[in-house]
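Checked the freezer inventory, then went back to the computational side. Two predictions to log before the end of the day. The first one is the construct we discussed on Monday; recording sequence and tokens without edits.
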Amino acid sequence: MKIPKEVTIGNTTHLVCTKKSIVVSNKICHGSFDEETHTITIAQGNPLREYKYDADERANTFWHELTHAILYDMGCTLTHNEKFVTEFSNRLDQAIKTARF
């Protein structure tokens, strides 16, 4: 999947970028969503394991962070619920990957 450079959710355009690695609250993360800068960032890999995320992992991470952004735009209390966001985004990723036209 080709990851977009930006997406618009509601009235807000979000920049989508990649970084070599991402650390949030002293944890290595696959991605992040910054509510203040409206930025979705996708990590290229995990430097501690010298591991690069493959295209499927990066796509799944994009859907995960996009789910955070959508819930944030909706003012939903589930915005920071990682279990919900992960379960929802995994199903979204699967639906998109298996869609037939």
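The second is the one RB wanted added to the comparison set:
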Amino acid sequence: TRFDGIQLNVCGEAIGAGKPMLISDTQTLRRLFPSGTVFVNSSDVSAIADGFIRLLSNRNELTEEMRRFCQDMTSRWIQMRCRPLLQRIGLTSIS
């Protein structure tokens, strides 16, 4: 997308799969996906190509960043959503 304020669903799939991303450089996407990501001006074909080269050149580092980001997001989801829900319905909290 070239528009700010839009969250791309495919980004969530990339996080879950542990894959680095090449996405548009918008404030929203930078805030939501700060790790394992190469941001590019999606209106500029050369910038997209350069970003893809950066992604491939740094694939291992970006993949590790994405793995850590996924673990962090999962832990936060469990703490903020899962545990309170389980406690509210009277089930034992998960670890």
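For RB: The longest strand covers residues 21-24. The helical segments are 9-17, 27-32, 45-57, 59-88. Let me know if you want it refolded.
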